[in-house]
Each structure stands twice: as C-alpha cells, then as structure tokens.
Amino acid sequence: MASVCEAVLEAARPRRLRARALGARAAAPRPWPRHELETLRRCPACGSSVRRPLYVSLTDRRRATAPGEWNFHTCSRCTAAFLDPRPTAAAGLMRGAPPLRHPHTPGWLTRQARRLTVALRNGYVNRRTDQRLRPAYRLGYWWHVWRPRSRARIHAELGWLPAGRPHRRLLDVGGQSPQAVGAARSSGWRVTVVLPDHRRPALLDMPDADVHVGSVADAGLSQGSFDLINVQGALERMHRPLEELEACARLLRPGGTIRISTPNLASLGHRHYRRHWSALDPPRNLVLFTAASLDRLLGSAGFSATHTRDVPLGARQSFRDSEELTTGRWSSPRYWLRRASIELKALFADACALLRPDWGERLVVTARPVSSATTVPVAA
Predict the structure, then answer these.
(1) Pair 325, 185 in one domain
(2) Is the pLDDT confidence value at 134 over 50?
(3) Which terminus in the chain has less CB density within 10 A, N or C?
(4) Are 169 and 256 members of one domain?
C-alpha cells in the first residue's frame, strides 16, 4: 500500500517547476564557521557507527539565515536521520523557524475570514481550557467538533494536554508554543518550562513563570516531581536526545506520562518532497525519527515500549511549506490550481495517516517509565 500511495503523490509532482526553482537557487552559500561545528562518529539516538548518506549539500532555505551546507545521514540500525557535521550547542540555533510568509497583502474579505477563523478557534479553546480568549464565538466549539483536521491542529498547538488538577505539575521542554503554556496554566497545571536558550521573550516575560534555560539534565530539577512532561517540537533539536529522555524519566512521578511530538521521517510528505521536505529544516533540526527509531530510543531511555499514538492530521501546512520550497513560488490566490492540488495531496496524505499513523507528518507519542507502566495503564 505504501508503494501505491507514493505512486499517487509522484504523479502530482511538479517536475518542471522544481527544475526551474533549483536552477534559480544554484548560488553557493557562505560557509559555516568551523569553530562552531562538531563531527559525529555515532548515531546520537542509538550509538551505532554504521550509517549511509541521505541528503548532501542542504541549505537553510526555510529561513535563509544560517550559512553553510549540511548533510543528513541515516543510521543503519535504528533508521533515524541525523545531521553531521552539525552546529555545536553553543551556536544557539535552537530557535524554531516561523511559517513561510506570503508576500501579497490580504484584502478586506480575507481579513474578515481570518478574524472569523480566529474567533471560532478561540471559542473552542475557551470551552476546552477555561480560557477567556477574544474574539471568540461559542459556536466555535461545535464547529471544530465536526472538523477533525482543524481540531487536531488546535490540540497539537496546545500540546495535547488533558485538564489539570490541583498540585499537578507539568514540565514543558522547548517552549515551542507560548499558547500551550498559557493554556496549561489556565487549565490548572503548575507549569515549569525548560528553554534551550534565552531568546524566547514571550515565555521569559510571563508573570510567575518558572523558566530554566539550558538542557533538562542540567536544569537542577527535583527527581520525581512532575506528573506530565510535554516535549513538543524539541526532541529533533536536542544534541543528546538519549540523555535528555533519561533525565525526563527520572523527573516523572510514579504513574507520570511523557508526550512527544516530532516530525516523522517515514511520512508521505517526506517520501514525496524528499530533500525539499520542510521538516528537514537544517541546521536547526539535528535528529529526525521514524516510529521504529523513536520506539528504540524510548526503550533505551527507560520508558515503556507500549504507548499510544495520536494522529495530528497536519499534512496541509507541511505540504504547503514543502511545495513553496520545491517550486520557489508563493501560495498566492493567483495560483489557485496549484493550491487546489496541494489541498488534494494533503487530504490524501491525512486519509492514509488515519489508516497508518506511522505515515503521518508528525509522531505524537505517549509513554510512561517502565517502573510505572507495569502498574498504571497508558492514558489515551
């Protein structure tokens, strides 16, 4: 079935536009400073030294701010892909990339439609998290109940967090979404945030925020003090993912849970766009996982092998960004036919992800430490 899905997406690949875009981007980038590079001899996920090249001479096309050319290698043991050589931890490139911006100015009708979308979204979030976001329509809750793709996208932005209880503690690793942190606090969680660097003023300036800058292992947090650890958009940017997850296992209380959201290297989006897949994002993303490699990493870190996978249905935005990187064109209203083809391909990819969660654009995994997994069932 995987070959059939790849054939359908391959038939819709814009070969002529891709060749034109590659020809326009042939200029050699500036080199990365050598003193801020480190070379790996083993896979950072499993420690194997057997690997094979995946992509060579990649550049920072998503933000166009980082110089240099980058190479991804695939581990022959765990199937994870990692960047080698890569920037050192002191280089400070752990910041997330914003979505690609559209150069055209939206008209009045577009602005009103976006305001309605925000109001419907806020109505759903207010109902689920007891927040008071404005503008908001109460109809937004029922609107998103019957729209699984938009509801899954909102849940992914909020970190897929359940309702909190008094004295329950949440550790947010990476701080990728200030909205998720605010939603967790308003839902009753006592939130602690670990940031990779100090350049997130939206989180550092939050009142009564317990923020630590650095890695989880070096944050100095008390062992067995958290009920839930949320690692959203941070695992792929860790220099030492195994050590960080081992530290997370020690920080969880008995019966605690870790939730991880990371790009899926085995997704249909990556199989279709290959080196133009937006989630590659070198040099910010250092390690990319498949479902098998993430299972292996969790098992090595002391987490249970049995866990649940949610389907975030996030192919639309991923396909849009990847299409822009592939063709070099913007998704403006003038290219309505290409926009329609992107929507159809994303809808097809989401439908396949419902049948096979391992093909989704992101892996959303819930796991428990081995000591508590034997006595407490995994939460869905």
Answers:
(1) yes
(2) yes
(3) C
(4) yes
Confidence band, pLDDT 50/70/90 cuts, at residue 114: confident
Q: Residue 204 and residue 95: Cα distance in Å, rounded?
A: 14
300 CB burial (10 A radius; 0-12, 13-18, 19+): middle
Q: What are phi and psi of 376, to 5 degrees?
A: -120, 125
pLDDT at 49: 93
Asked if residue 124 is part of any domain, the answer here is yes
Say if residue 228 is in the same domain as residue 119. no
Burial class (CB in 10 A: 0-12, 13-18, 19+), 186: middle
Three-state secondary structure call for residue 336: helix
- Cβ–Cβ under 8 Å, residues 360 and 311: yes
Q: How far apart, in whole angstroms, are the C-alpha atoms of residue 134 and residue 120?
A: 10
Q: Which of 92, 118, 146 is the last residue of a domain?
A: 146
Residue-wise pLDDT for 188-201, tens only, equals 788 898 987 655 55
Alpha carbons 130 and 315: distance in angstroms, whole number: 29
pTM score of the predicted model: 0.78
Query: Dihedrals φ, ψ of 337, to 5°?
Result: -70, -40
Element containing residue 363 per DSSP (H, E): strand 362-367
Q: How far apart are the first and last CA of the chain?
A: 27
Same domain, 131 and 208: no
Instruction: Indicate the range of 185-199, 213-227, 352-366 predicted with least confidence.
Output: 185-199
Residue 189, in any domain of the structure: yes
Count of domains for the chain: 2
Rounded CA gap, 246 and 248, in Å? Answer: 5
Q: Domain check: are 243 and 126 in the same one?
A: no
CB-neighbour burial class of residue 166 (10 A; exposed 0-12, middle 13-18, buried 19+) = exposed
